[in-house]
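In the design runs reported in the main text, the only information available to the sequence generator was the tokenized backbone. The following block is the verbatim input for one such run; it is reproduced so that readers can re-run the procedure and compare outputs position by position.
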């Protein structure tokens, strides 16, 4: 693994946050100021391809990157976009199997939405999120 890729991987692996490429770029540049944006994006792609991290596509927002490689549902704030991991019960796919008779499900991508406590209190939002 190149030094750059290791740095990017470490940033993602260090925290449960599901950061965007831009957030990862900012953090990586703090450590390695010469790092180019394109290098970050390219290495994120390679890490996803090799299965070391997961990419979480977000509707109408930049994708986020996840250190947790096992399949798991996400709880997403509709206001600020904050993402939390949920622990799924083993039989999670059961109800979906009912909808797909004769099909063996191999995985899922489940996003549940809410308004997080900070947004409910009006303390956070798309602008205040970084503070
Ligand atoms: Zn929120
Ligand atoms: Zn996750």
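Verbatim output:
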């Amino acid at each position: 693994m190149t030094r750059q890729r290791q740095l990017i991987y470490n940033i993602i692996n260090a925290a449960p946050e599901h950061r965007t490429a831009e957030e990862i770029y900012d953090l990586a540049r703090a450590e390695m100021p010469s790092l180019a944006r394109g290098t970050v994006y390219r290495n994120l792609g390679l890490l996803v391809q090799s299965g070391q991290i997961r990419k979480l596509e977000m509707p109408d927002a930049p994708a986020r990157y996840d250190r947790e490689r096992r399949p798991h549902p996400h709880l997403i704030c509709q206001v600020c976009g904050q993402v939390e991991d949920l622990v799924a019960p083993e039989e999670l796919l059961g109800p979906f199997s009912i909808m797909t008779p004769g099909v063996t499900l191999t995985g899922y991508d489940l996003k549940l939405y809410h308004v997080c406590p900070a947004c409910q209190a009006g303390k956070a939002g798309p602008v205040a999120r970084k503070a």
